[in-house]
Amino acid sequence: MAKPIIVSGMQPTGKIHLGNYLGALNNWLSIQKSDKYESIFFIADYHSITENYSAEEKRQQVFDLACTYLAIGLNTEKSIIFVQSAVPECTELTWIFNTLTPIAELQRMTQFKDKSERQEKNINMGLFDYPVLQAADILLYDGSLVPVGEDQIQHVELTRDAARWFNNKYKANYFPEAKPLLTSCPRLMSLLEPAKKMSKSLGEKHCLNIDEEPEEIAKKLAKAVTTPEGVANLKLIYDTFKEQMTGDFDENKMGETKKIIAEGLAKHFADFRKRKKELLSQPEEVAKILEAGRARASVIAQKRIVEIKKIIGVI
Ligand code: TYM
């Protein structure tokens, strides 16, 4: 029997933080290791241009995220790894799904509402259409399982709806119903405001980035708030990396406990940091890897878009 297809991506908008890692990236690694799935992981650059950005910075962010993917252990022999915008069939499918998606469904999306508040001078059509592009990302490759954090569940639900709208309208049993795959930490909270999820949009000090130097990790953790919610969040981090921790989690000695967590995290990501630095000095190698991934993704995308166009009557 064919293996289920896993599809997921991350936006190149800055450093990858521990929330991204515990909610998604670490799961991608387990999925890859299990050999039970076909996995497709990409860099969602077209999603990220819906926010304010500069072209030069974006190029750097895409490269940085590619280095993160490779250094953390995504393996091109086991997974297809590429940049979203390099496979234009995805935006073609977005258009097709646009014609099936009721505006009211997109107006309900909480991420759209949040981002509209954050960038009220740039509420562009792409920001609104964002979940439709995400549905196309997943369904273009026949993805049925989507390893993401909790904040993406609503988008995966819209993906499932898009598949249904398409299958019903065209009386085709073509697209699968995608489901999110969550980890035991689907929503890591901010270090400074643990009522909110860890997010780049809150600011650097709220996040622990996975490629951060040990001193920086220790500094940020030292400032992490220790309200009951904050302690619970730190406990979650401690428990997830338990194997690397060299002492107990003691709620009455949070200063000490934070140092233990900082050392454990620094140790866990030491090899990753080293490999990432090497890759950052090899842009041509990284470009070749992404090009090979693009070629593999394109073979699938080109075949599928022809099938889809036949179903909808434009070929
Ligand atoms: P993005 O780039 O915001 O986040 C990448 C992944 O990290 C998860 N995540 C978290 N998990 C736990 N705790 C947190 N604090 C936390 N913050 C972020 C996110 O849920 C996500 O899994 N729209 C997507 C990118 C995307 C995509 C796709 C994903 C585009 N197309 C197709 C899956 C399939 C996004 O913005 O993720």
Describe this structure in words.
- It is a single chain.
- The protein has 13 helices and five strands.
- It is mainly α.
- The strands form two sheets. The protein has a three-stranded parallel sheet.
- Strand 1 (5-10), helix 1 and strand 2 form a beta-alpha-beta unit.
- Helix 10 runs parallel beside helix 11.
- The longest helix has 30 residues, at 283-312.
- The chain starts with a strand and ends with a helix.
- The mean pLDDT is 97.
- Bound molecules: tryptophanyl-5'AMP.
- Tryptophanyl-5'AMP (TYM) binds at residues 7-11, 19-20, 22-24, 44, 47, 134, 137-138, 146, 148-149, 151-152, 155, 186-188, 197-199.
Question: What's the rounded overall pLDDT mean?
Answer: 97
Structural class by helix and strand composition: mainly alpha
The molecules bound to the chains, other than polymers, are: tryptophanyl-5'AMP
- Topology pattern, helix = H, strand = E: EHEHHEHHHHEHEHHHHH
Amount of beta strand? 5-15%
Strand order of the largest sheet: 1-2-3
Briefly summarize what is shown:
With 315 residues, this protein is mainly α. It contains 13 helices and 5 strands.
